[in-house]
Amino acid sequence: MRYHPLTAEDRAAMLAKIGASSIDALFRDVPKSAVVPLSTFDLPDTKGELEVDRLMSKLAAKNTAAGSVPFFCGAGAYKHHVPSAVDHLIQRSEFLTSYTPYQPEIAQGTLQYMFEFQTQVALLTGMEVANASLYDGSTATAEAVLMAQRVTRRPKAILSGGLHPHYSETVETVAGLSGKVVRAPVTPGSAEDIPAMIDNETACVVVQSPDVFGMIRDLKPIAEAAHAKGALLIAVVTEVMSLGLIEPPGHQGADIVAAEGQSIGNGLNFGGPYVGLFATREKFLRQMPGRLCGETVDATGKRGYVLTLSTREQHIRRDKATSNICTNSGLCCLAFTIHLSLLGEEGLIRVARVNHATASNLADKLTKISGVSLVTSSFFNEFTIKLPKPAAGVVDALAARNIIAGVPVSRLLPHDESVRDLLIVAATETCTDDDIDAFAKGLSEVLS
Amino acid sequence: MTMNNQGRPTAPGTIESNELPTISGDRGLDHEEGLIFELGRKGMTSVDVPDVQMAETRLGGQRRKGAIGLPGLSEPEVVRHYVRLSRMNYAIDAGLYPLGSCTMKHNPRLNEKMARLPGFGDLHPLAPQSTTQGALELISELMKWLTTLTGMPAVAMSPKAGAHGELCGLLAIRAAIEARGEKRPRILVPESAHGTNPATAAFAGFVVDEVPGTKDGHVDVAALKAKLGPDVAAIMLTNPNTCGLFEPQIIEMADAVHAAGAYFYCDGANFNAIAGRVRPGDLGVDAMHINLHKTFSTPHGGGGPGAGPVVLSERLAPYAPLPLLVHDAKGFRYVEDRADVPKDAAPFGRMCAFHGQMGMFTRALTYMLSHGRDGVRQASEDAVLSANYILASLKDVMSAPFGDGPCMHEALFDDSFLDGTGVTTLDFAKAMIDEGYHPMTMYFPLVVHGAMLIEPTESESKESIDRFIHVLRTMALEAKAGKRERFEGAPRLAPRRRLDETAAARKPILRWKPKEMPQAAE
Fold first, then answer.
1. Is the dihedral of CA B412, A102, A135, B292 positive or negative?
2. b/e map of B316-355 (b: 16 or more CB within 10 Å)?
3. Which end of chain B is more exposed for a tag (fewer CB within 10 A), N or C?
């Protein structure tokens, strides 16, 4: 087997040194009844690289890659152009095949990019501090709710109806254990009255902007209402590219920002791995979950970086830890850092503007089709349209024409009749004029 | 045995001369590198995008006011910056990485290539399922490998890391207990457990009760049995355990746990010792996460991303979280809503958005197909053989607390061989850095004083292991002979000397700030 360097002679020599008669002797603590022969496993035997490549490629060919067709899906995962340098750099052995930087003397590369990442996330969200990433946006949101429950010592979380339904379910699963999670009504294209729902039991309100339908929310009045009652505002961002163009939550009074960072540096990957961004106010630092990298000096006075404040974490605090999380999204966080460094301020703002302009153009073209109306009056690169018939069927019909038209709201809320005809459509810098024309033409044909 | 005599000099005298300052501050191939924020300038970007001017926007009055504060750099500058940073890292590709319990094995590059096929890498999680059949088939195939290798009937694929898998397993257990109309608040965790175990139990709303170990590194079965009762939900047990030993009474423990009406959660971090030889299902396990980044070699990536699918027993399978993958005449499809699940299913909820770490699934399945069942078994055997070889070769000069019998995939030493030398476990481990090695896992498991846990994995050649043994033997003998120079203040030859972690925690500086902004933490 090409990955195993030991030869039969090596194995024999090693067994001799150990003084064991056979490999089986090394497994002597395993109960006899639990040792099974290889034939027990109904699985194939070893294969060469070429053969595996063929098998996997055959599976991959059964899928329709986003880049191969006019493509308009968003709803929490976005297709952006990631510069070639990103994937090249993250595949350097020293990044790809290193462990968590617990030995800082030989892990400054990882630690320094984590420090850069934390800075970038703080700047982008308008917050004071950020951690070195969590698994993804949805788990970051759940962690944010738990943190708000710790900070306020209150049980209740109010989730906006505009929060991605998968995020709501994730929060309910985790934060519903010890607290109470209440969902506000789903009101596509308008803001539900969240301030009216806040009471003295409320630990936090969770509001996504742009929301799952694409609408940009005004967070300020919600932050004021929450703070007046001693609750925190958790702002959720699933399309982090939007922060190149819209006011960051930190400037609107958010206490915690939980975001999905996939759009920057990371491919769609059928849903993961992604990178959860988590930022907050300095005063909540010690209640924050996840890894943190801090600046320090070495014994000769040289600047360097270390993992810090680990007394919050599981490997030190065990059952008293702020979270059970043990990893960050390492390589995805690096991809984010490199892509954002390549973009820089100017590049990010330009790409964000192209996104908004492309989506505006698409919205105008689609709403010219009879029976199609725009549900979200404000948006960044994603909006919701109402169709004259159920959106799921329309998406399937367009898929048959090799157009991936977007995400029907019924995919996320399958049993809500009121959203049956709604379609969430995203357009990024990767959409060409031809893609947009093909979509508009296809949609008008499918609807006629 | 071949020794590399052309390696870095390690004699103290040479260290002094090596510290002669250079004009640039760089040293040969070792470059100092500032933060990206100290390098850039305004207006520059590495990305050529049209400059679209928008007179009018539809941003709902929320257009960003003011600058973000990001630096601008050209592509060559960004590439050089991150290449220079990368060179400050140790990596498995560059050398033996003996971190016990972390499993730093070779990461085949085919796996990286396969994960990047556009049909997998460029696939949207909510694209119409008719356009993602190959991806769903891949997940189904991986599920088959995982359930077959573990002898368990079901697997939840969405957990994003080992600790996330632990949470998933405990939530399934919690749901099963609630479905029985019972309340069982307590979870038993051996004191040798990974820190994530008690943290997860507390996170999932349970009270943690520690089970002591025996003098020979196993769980104290009598103590465990004494703690079982109608208020115990589960035991969380790592097997092979964190001392690198297989629990010989594992089946007896599982039976006792089940007889008490509780569940057996197994931390699968060490599955790589037994995969292809032993099926956790045969040991009575009810739930076990599998760290795909350990046993199935998806890259550690400097601390993530991982993936932690959880195999489940018949009794827990109905409570697996959404989404559920089903296969029928129409093909594969994900059931994503509670209202649509099959008759017997009662999912406890959802672990995350979408369906889990697909990028890791692709890599893990590629690894499995390459290895085959025979290769998986060989990997486990070689990992165990190599660890035992290290144990046998070092136990006369280092001290193995449970050294009489064979170990599994990792060899555990304590610091009693350093008694009276003035050298600590930390000094010993840091001195390994100067020898070109990443230190072993230190001070874990907590049940052993000054623990040093060495896991060579199946990826090392005998020559490589022999060289490593020679270095550690020599170090141990020097320490015992009172030659402390090598250890004091080590490492000396790394990009940085020991870093001040106390100062970092006392006055945290967690981000770069422009000069005019004060650091707010004080």
1. negative
2. bbbbbbbbbbbeeeeebbbbbbbeebeeebebbbbbbbbb
3. C
Closest CA to A20 of B103, B414, B379, B381: B381
Same domain, yes or no: A95 and A118: yes
Domain contains A60: no
Domain B110-366: give its CATH code: 3.40.640.10
Final residue of a domain: which of A320, A339, A358?
A: A339
Closest CA to A41 of B311, B146, B142, B149: B149
The residue ranges of every structural domain in chain B are 110-366, 374-494
Q: Supply the CATH number for residue A400's domain.
A: 3.90.1150.10
Could you list the residue range(s) of the whole structural domain that residue A93 is in?
84-339
Task: List chain B residues with CB under 8 Å of A313.
Answer: 195
B199 with A319: Cβ contact below 8 A: yes
Considering the domain architecture, whether residues A106 and A219 belong to the same structural domain is answered as yes
User: Which residues in chain A are closer than 8 Å to B390, comparing Cβ atoms?
Assistant: none
**Cross-chain Cβ contact A43/B373 below 8 Å:** yes
Least CA distance to A25: which residue of chain B? B406
ipTM of the complex: 0.97
Pick the residue from chain A with its C-alpha nearest to B106: A3
Q: What angle do CA A6, B302, B298 make, to 5 degrees?
A: 50
A316 with A242, same domain? yes
Examine the domain organization and report whether A303 and A434 are in the same domain: no
The predicted-structure confidence for A253-270, as pLDDT tens digits, reads as follows: 999 999 999 999 999 999
pLDDT above 70: percentage of residues in chain B: 95
pLDDT bracket for residue B519 (50, 70, 90) = low
Task: Annotate A144-207 with DSSP letters as a single string.
Answer: HHHHHHHHHT--EEEE-TTS-HHHHHHHHHHHTTTSEEEEPPP-TTS----GGG--TTEEEEEE
Q: Do A293 and B377 touch (CB under 8 A)?
A: no
CA dihedral A116, A120, A121, A126 (to 10 degrees): 140
Kindly report the number of other CB atoms within 10 A of residue B69's CB atom: 17
* Test the A interface: residue of B26, B53, B58, B374 with most A CBs within 10 Å: B58
User: Do the beta carbons of residue B430 and residue B498 sit within 8 Å?
Assistant: yes
Contact A75 B161 (CB under 8 A): no
CB contact under 8 A, B461 and A106: no
Q: Structurally, what CATH architecture does the domain formed by B374-494 represent?
A: Alpha-Beta Complex (3.90)
Checking if the pLDDT of B516 tops 80, the result is no
**Distance between A199 CA and the closest CA of chain B, angstroms:** 25
Q: Which residues from chain B sit within 8 angstroms of residue A42, using beta carbons?
A: 148
Residues A322 and A350 in one domain: no
Among chain A residues, CA nearest to B55:
A357
Are residues A132 and A73 both part of a single domain? no
Task: Summarize pLDDT for A13-66 with one digit per residue, the tens.
Answer: 999 999 999 999 999 999 999 999 999 999 999 999 999 999 999 999 999 999
Query: What confidence tier does B19 reach under pLDDT thresholds 50, 70, 90?
Result: low
In a domain, A54, yes or no: no
Contact B93 A93 (CB under 8 A): yes
pLDDT of A279 strictly over 60? yes
How many domains, chain A? 2
Q: What is the pLDDT of residues B240-275, one digit of tens each?
A: 999 999 999 999 999 999 999 999 999 999 999 999
Q: Is residue A257 part of a domain?
A: yes
Q: What pLDDT score was predicted for residue A312?
A: 78
Interface of A with B in 233-272 (CB under 8 A): 243-248, 251, 260, 267-272
A272, A143: one domain: yes
Same domain, A303 and A247: yes
With CA atoms as reference, the chain B residue closest to A14 would be: B389
* CA neighbor of A355 nearest in space, from A241, A273, A438, A263: A241
Question: Which of B110, B132, B195 lies nearest to residue A63, judging by beta carbons?
Answer: B132
Instruction: Classify residue A9: in a domain, yes or no.
Output: no
Q: What band does A381 get if pLDDT is binned at 50, 70 and 90?
A: very high
Chosen domain end from A295, A312, A339? A339
Q: Is A350 on the interface with B (CB under 8 A)?
A: yes
